[in-house]
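just leaving the lab so this will be short. what follows is a protein written twice so to speak, once as letters and once as structure tokens for the fold. can you read through it and tell me how you think this chain folds. thanks a lot i owe you, the record is right below.

___
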Amino acid sequence: MKIGPTFHFHLSPVMKSQTNPEVNFLQSHHNYGVDKAETDRNLERVVMNALRENVLIDCSKIIVRVTGRTVFLEGKVRFREERMLAQECIANLFGIRSVVNYLTYPCAFSR
């Protein structure tokens, strides 16, 4: 005896992004045993591309390191606002666990 309608859902393990192939690569390899070093290298590339695309950030002196999906920003920026913008720019990218911001900027009092 059936009480109500039966619904069948097909849940895809990967949601494809139509605009960003890098996200597709990370999503498609996230659950399939890709080694952590390869994932970190791919995340490093995605982070650098995101920083380069932001015209308000001079990323020429920024070094990006990724270890265990934690992003480390190192180097120098021009202003405090640029330091914060760099962190905000990448904080919500797919695959990033956390961001550690070691970017420095010149102190206004030391000029």
About this structure: The chain has three helices and three strands.
